[in-house]
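Example record

One chain of 233 residues, shown exactly as stored in the release files.
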Amino acid sequence: MPFVPVLHAEWIKIRTLRSLLGALGAVLVVTVAFSAVTAAQADRSDPLYAVFFGVSLGQVAAVVFGALAVSGEYRGGALRLTLAAVPDRTRWFAAKAVAVALPVLAVGLATGLVTLAVGGATTGVTWAERLRGVVGCALYLTLMALLAAGLAAVLRSGVGTLGVLIPFLLIVSFVVGDLASGAADYLPDRAGQLALHSAPEGPLGPWTGLAVTALWAGAALGAGTWCVRRRDA
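Predicted structure tokens for this chain:
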């Protein structure tokens, strides 16, 4: 089966599952809500991050979306039916990854724009920084969703994937950052969020930080592809 029909089939799965649509909606709602609070109260030493602080919590919803979109295939023998229609496993998983990435990218752009509209007018953020924040927000959320999708293919479990990633994002990354700031700069969340800072510190810049996150996501997708190809459905 050609790639486009496979992608269309995967998109139908996503848009017909309320849990996935709810996770996408939560990306916008959670990010904007927390950003609105921090933009009004945060330290002005980093005005751009004050506007986009909510991304650090909104990313959890993006991770949930990516994890559930893939792990749902492993419930009730759904993957066997999918592979019966699309025997080329690499093509199927590539379509799944694109079907995860595109809606998160669209929602991420909308989230960035709404977040900026809510908090940008109250801070001293330049137009160049605002543009970087919106684009960085969308790319970062997309990469984190893909990281979760790849890990879900490896673990074959949404609960297992979220059990690894959510504590990592909310707890472990901050602990490692306090203990070893140099190594922590290359963690996927800390590196990617540099695009949301006015003047990032450390060895990475805004775009190189996103490149590091992209490498993490690529590694997870590569491992996921290997597992999909080698393991029984």
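Notes: DSSP finds eleven helices and no strands in the chain.
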